[in-house]
Amino acid sequence: MALDSSPEAPLAVRTVANAVKDWVGRLGSVWIEGEVAEYRPRPGGRLQYLRLRDTEADVSLTVVVDTSIAGGLQPPLAAGQRILVHAQPSYWTGRGELQYRARALRAVGLGELLAQLEALRATLAAEGLFAPERKQPLPFLPRCIGLICGRNSAAQHDVQANVWDRWPGTAFEVREVAVQGAQAVPEVVAALTELASRPEIDVIVITRGGGSVEDLLPFSNETLVRAVANCRTPVVSAIGHEQDVPLLDFVADLRASTPTDAAKRIVPSWREQVQLIQNLAQRGRRSLHQRAEQMDRHIVDTRSRLRRAVQTRLESAELSLAHLQAQLQTLSPQATLDRGYAIAVLEDGSVLRDATEVAIGDRLALRLARGQVTTSIDTIMVNDSERQE
After folding, report:
1. Which residues of the chain does CATH 3.40.50.261 include?
2. Which fold has domain 116-271?
3. Cα angle vertex 90, ends 89, 96, to 5°?
4. Rounded distance, CA 44 to CA 34, Å?
5. CA distances from 35 to 57, 83, 107, 108 (A)
């Protein structure tokens, strides 16, 4: 119930403090999971104090625990450790502070963390966030690379040094962020969102060095995974080493086993490209040389075939000509003359073909195989009857 008060009738500090204490005391005990943000053991003290923070938000609370309970935790209580706390909220009226009085502490074991990650992985996979068809191809040669990494980290050096070795002069937009702890997720998501809004950035690399499962938990955070899934710029995950597989690896467009591997996957090697060009040039020269040789052989073969065709035609023509010459000689009057016959030619130059065409006393020229003689007609025989004068 609300306390009645007014400027004329204000409440005493103790009244408000006791009311808050009574209200908080009715909340009961709760189990809380978080990361130990700060813990400084107090040797000899009956109570120990630690700050427990949320792993995904900038929220923390103070836990008070008996030394006997804190000392019995295995592994020993330390900053950065994930623990479960069974605590009763309490309000200390003396200083107006809210505390949580721990009744039990448990370390969050690796098995429990892995089980939680597996459950989240299955949920996201069922939504299709890890499907291959969602993956975006990386450009062959990015104009500018967005790099999200730890501050002054070895991972940043590995990515940049190897990229510049493979393709000198490649442009980078670097965003140094927390890569561990409560601030990691919001800072990485903010950097990703900002870089994805830059049209000149063709690919974004999220990288950090290796670490324990607990150290890499931010990169399995659901908020970060969904941000990468919604990013329209291709994202490369380069977290830890080969054996480290945060959920970011499943949703990223490309998973690199190490920061160095990421550099090899996002830019080509100029040496390899030069060698490729040289090999292509050599292959081109060989191909042109082979083609030229083929054309030379084709020209030689064509000329040979033409010569043979012409020779064949000439030989055939010579044979035909010889055959025609033989026929001509056979049919020629000269051939008849050569066989001992003579051609009688009248005085007007016409050839005598019929005995009735001449008369006794007409003169004839007899054309022989060699030479010609002139004679006169003294006898004419027509149809086996002889006529003389």
Report:
1. 116-271
2. Rossmann fold (3.40.50)
3. 130
4. 26
5. 11, 6, 10, 10
- Residue 24: count other Cβ atoms within 10 Å of its Cβ: 14
| Per-residue pLDDT reduced to its tens digit, 82-129 | 888 999 998 888 888 888 999 999 887 766 777 778 889 999 999 999
Could you tell me the two tokens for 41?
A: 């053991």
Tokens (6 digits) for 8: 């004329």
* 62 and 37 Cβ atoms separated by less than 8 Å: no
User: Alpha-carbon distance 300 to 159, whole Å?
Assistant: 60
| Residue numbers in the chain where pLDDT is lower than 70 | 1, 110-111, 242, 384-389
Output the six-digit token pair for 171: 């442009």
List where CATH 2.40.50.140 sits in the chain.
13-108
Tokens 């969102």, located at residue: 193
* Contact predicate 200/142, CB 8 Å: no
Q: What is the pLDDT of residues 199-255, one digit of tens each?
A: 999 999 999 987 777 788 889 999 999 999 999 999 999 997 767 789 999 999 999
The CATH number of the structural domain formed by 13-108 is: 2.40.50.140
CA distances from 187 to 182, 230, 236, 281, 371 (A): 9, 17, 17, 49, 130
